[in-house]
Every structure is written in structure tokens, then in C-alpha cells.
Amino acid sequence: MEKLALAAGTALCLAITGVVIVTASADPVDDTLEIDGAEMITRAPAPEGHPFDEVMSGWLFREAETRATQEDSFENPGMLAVERGAELWETVEGTAGQSCASCHQDASVTMANVGATFPRWDADSGKPINVEGQINKCRVENMGAEPYAFDAEPQVSLTAFLKHQSLGKPVAIDLSEGEMQEWWEKGKDLYYTRTGQLDFSCSSCHEASMGKYIRADHLSQGQVNGFPTYRFNTGGMVSLHNRFRGCIRDTRAEMPAAFSDELMALETYVTWRGTGLSVETPAVRQ
Amino acid sequence: MLSELAKPVMAAAFVLAAVQASAQEVAPADVKIADYAVAEPLTGTSGDAVEGAKTFANRGLGNCLACHAVSALETEQFHGNVGPALDGVADRWSADELRAIVVDAKQIFSEETVMPAFYSLDYGITPRKDLVGKTILTAQQVEDVVAYLATLKE
Question: What is the pLDDT of residues B67-111, one digit of tens each?
């Protein structure tokens, strides 16, 4: 059931002026997300040390139509990227004459946990690695192919395909590996650091103002469990680092490079903030 | 020939005029906030409430509506609720207090407030390069917004 709780003040002004101001139902909906009959975990008890008691999927904050589009795989335009990713999985490229499938066979078996457990510690680079990074590592080291450039269409599609293999699995990253805990700390610092002329941190919007409306946008917890997501706004897929950069740009700050140490630390920390939520890739957003 | 010679003179006169205009404008670092108020207007030209309403709603300027609802701005869609509705705000605060809130909300509410400081150079890390040294609103825009806020009485 969708709550239509108008903020008291807004309800009053509506009554007086009779004007349709698109209004504030300040709460996320009380609804269940089922994708093709499988129930997703959209609310989970927060891990210890989390500022919230409960972590919530961004799906709960979206309008009814957007939510419905994600519930049906045939309706979800993000599934086209997943299908394209499935083709790329089988495509031989590079000097070694291999495809992803040559080494990893059936992704639904071998990749079932990837979407729920990345970023992981990568001992070779001495840094956390995300799915996009792992794809490029395999392309360079195992296939003799060029790495994908940031946000190249195949990078986004293959990432969507891989994460989709974990659909429904609860996010659970391992912070005990390598120096993951230090990167988590660094990501946490960044999350609370104010940037730009407007002087906002991630927490200004996704913690202090969570559930509120900032102009037409209902502010969610800024969870990452649905990425890459399909956006109606742009009519295309949005990768996680693209979203991070967009939010930072909106504070009127210089944007850190995709996959930079800053954004990898942020990905590590923000992924942890969604511990227990189901992977929803490809989620649908407005 | 003559006009070529006249140029430097004209330029000098122009610079002088510019200096005089800005002499009446308080620089961001010189704004005095005392007792939760800025008693001196930031410019010599009094604020224009009609312009202020535009600056208030404009997404590229104040974008105040992103966070505050105002029933009087009924033609504008999408009023946010990150901050309180501003109906009757002039009954709660004097014009000098409203000026202080717009100049630097952090000094009025708390360091933690999410409301940006609209006339301050004390912003977050890595500001966009083309904005360094610039305030979100100009001194005159602040005066206009304050004049607009002063009309919000119940």
C-alpha cells in the first residue's frame, strides 16, 4: 500500500489555495518488490555501526509507475543491457582467442555471487576492485584484449549482466580481506566530507534529508544495490561511478575520475551501507 | 587618432565608476553577523521583492524551492521539504535576521545545517574551478531575496 501522508504544512496550503503542488509523501512506500515472482529484500536491519536502524532500497522511494516497471522483466528496459551483456559474455576477443565463457562457462553458476560480494580486495593492485575493474583485468591479462573505457556501452552491459546473476542475493562484502577496512574508513571520511560551492556531503542528502523531497526528487538512502540502473530521465543505463560523479557535480564541485582511489573507497563504504539488501540489477529509476 | 588618445581616459573613468559601485557592496569576508543578524544591507540599492521571488525559484540561482515550500509561489511546481515551509517567515524573523540566514545559515542554525551559505566563500572541498572566489548569489540578489522573504507574512 502506498502511503499518501502529506506533510501537514503542504496539505494545509493545498487546502487554502487549491493548487496542485506535487507533494511530499515523506515516507518510503510500504510495498513488496517481487521480480518475476521472486521476492527482493528491500528492507534489512542495518549492520553494526550504521547510522540507520534499517537499510532501504531506493526502489521504495520511487513513484508507482517506476516501481512497477522494475517488477516485470519484460517491461524493464534495463534487461536489454543484460541481454547484450549475455552476448558479450560469449564473444571471443583479443589475442588469446578467448571469451569470458571460455574460462568461466555458465555465468548463472560461476558468477552467482559476484554482484553481492564486490568490491573485493585485489592483492595484485593492492586496492579494492569492482566488477568493471575485474572485467578489464580479465580482458587485459587473460584475453589479450583492450580494457573497456569508462562507461563504454559494453562495459555497462557486461557489468549489468554479471550483477544480474546475483539478483535477489543479499549484499555482503568482506571487509576482513586485505586492507578493505582501511578503504572503508577512507570511504566513510569522504561520505561525510562537504564538497563544492553548495557545500553538501553525501550525508547532507542521503542521511540528514533522507525521505524528504529536494524539489521533485524523493531522497533515498543512496543505495548501490541496483546498479547499473536504467533511468527514464536519460533513457539509458547509468553506471555507479557515473551516478557518484553526478551527485558530486550537483554540489558544484570538480568530479573525481571514475575508478579513482576516492571513488573506489566510496564504493566500498557505500556498498557496505546497503548490507543485507538484495541485488536488484538492473533497477529502474526516474 | 583623437579617439585612440581618448581611450585610456575613458577606460580610467570606467574603472572609477566600477570601484564606486563596488565600494557600496560589502565583500563576503566583510559581512558582519552579530546577534544572529546582518544589520547593514550588502548593497546601496534596496532589494526588489519581485526580482527576489525569481531568484528564489530559479534553479540556477537561489533554488530555494528545492528545499522550501511557499504557498504564494503557486505557479511553480515541485516545492521541496528539506527545510521548513516559509509561509509567514517574516513574522518569525526580522529582515536583518533573514539576511543573516541567507548569507550564512551555518552561523545562524548550526554547522550541521544542510542549507548552503549563499554569500560566503567558505565552501566545501574541490569547488568547481570556474566558481572559485564566487558566491552562490551576488550581494544584490541576496538583498532581493531578503526583500521577497519580508513579504511572506501570514
Answer: 999 999 988 989 999 999 999 999 999 999 999 999 999 999 999
Answer whether residue A26 shows pLDDT above 80. Answer: no
Domains of chain A: 24-72+169-285 (1.10.760.10), 78-164 (1.10.760.10)
Looking at beta carbons, which residues of chain A come within 8 Å of B67?
Answer: 214
Q: Are the beta carbons of A196 and B87 separated by less than 8 Å?
A: no
Tell me if the bond preceding A47 is cis, omega within 30° of 0: no
Q: How far is A100 from chain B (nearest CA, A)?
A: 39
Cα B105 to Cα B99: distance, rounded to the nearest angstrom: 10
ipTM of the complex: 0.90
Q: Is B66 on the interface with A (CB under 8 A)?
A: yes
Element (H, E) at A214: strand A213-214
Residues of A in contact with B82 (CB under 8 A): 209, 212-214, 219
Catalytic residues of A, which ones?
A: 247
| DSSP state at residue A157 | H
* Concatenated DSSP letters of B11-26: HHHHHHHHHHHHHTS-
Mean pLDDT of A28-51: 95
